[in-house]
Each structure stands twice: as C-alpha cells, then as structure tokens.
Design brief:
single chain, mainly alpha, 2 helices, 73 residues, 47% helix
C-alpha cells in the first residue's frame, strides 16, 4: 500500500466529503441568486419611480406665451 495517503481519504480508502465554508454555500444558494436578481431589477426601478414622484409633485411649469396668442386669463 502507498505510504503517502491523500489528505481527504480515511484509513479504509474512502474519500471524505469536502468541507465547504459557510460563504461558499451561501453564495451558491438559489435564494441568494434570487435575491441578487430581485435587487438588480427592483433597485433601479425604485429609484426611477422615486424620481418620477418628485417630478410629479413639483409645481407645474408655465411656458412663456406664444407670439400672437391671446393672453391667458
């Protein structure tokens, strides 16, 4: 038998399952992917909606009258 054993093997020759870190498992989680996609889609649209709300809340802009148009009441 080989005197140098793989560090991931037991004495009986079976492989140990690899230990993964918490961060590795969290990044590969389907929930993480779903949350990232939601943040990418919803984030910019929320910012746009907020800007539109601010624009709609502003007082209306009155344009200068056209030349030759009757005066506004």
């Amino acid at each position: 038998m080989n005197s140098h054993q793989n560090e991931n093997s037991h004495e009986n020759g079976r492989q140990r399952p690899r230990r993964t870190s918490l961060w590795t498992r969290a990044v590969r989680s389907p929930w993480t992917v779903a949350c990232v996609v939601a943040a990418v889609v919803v984030g910019p649209s929320a910012a746009t909606a907020s800007a539109l709300d601010h624009a709609n809340a502003a007082p209306p802009h009155s344009a200068p009258p056209k030349i030759g148009a009757p005066p506004r009441p």
